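Practice problem: predict the structure.
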Amino acid sequence: MKAGDIMTRNVITIDADSTVAQAAQRMLDHRISGMPVVDDSGRVIGIISEGDLLHRAETGTERRKSWWLGLVAGSSSQAENFTREHGRTVRDVMSATVISVDENTDLNEVVHMMEGRRIKRVPVLSNRQVVGIISRANLMRVLATMEPAAAAPAADDRTIRDRVLQAYKGQSWAPDFGENVVVKDGVVHLWGSVRTESQRQALLVGARNVAGVREVVDHIDVVSPVAEGFVGW
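Answer:
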């Protein structure tokens, strides 16, 4: 799936010379938490979000000043904070560094970018013109419309068991569970011991997602590594 497949095409934007109050009102009117800032040619030159408006002189929410912070943060940083807190235009408070993608960017790359950069939205650009935007809400809409894959044709128990073991193969958290997987009439029985509850849950989820599995019966014990008699993975 590509960025162009899920992006919002009707993008709400604002120009850099609009006031902070106008930006806040536009976000409220359109129920969005951020938007691209564009120049007269429609090229993206920044991003403004709710986070940029948290610390404002008008609301008395400026960052608290302390003598030791002044020693750590240089005068340049303190000046930037003052501009963000007291500036009247979008240009004063926007983030000028724009992380963007194009329509052909893989969705997986978009997600990693948002996670790694700790951002909530990514403009989609074509020749520096904004053609769409992807937010976390777009990703949630995709997830909400995804249905589980159609059930595979009935498989014999041996095939199902092989599929379950294959689902565990290569997973760093999965113990060698071969002898602890028993399949009868499409019902998977999981036996054995693991160290943590999270391992047990992952083993159950892995089996439930296997095509042809009718049910998963949990017989797994969670045993602390220091418990007497525990020998295993």
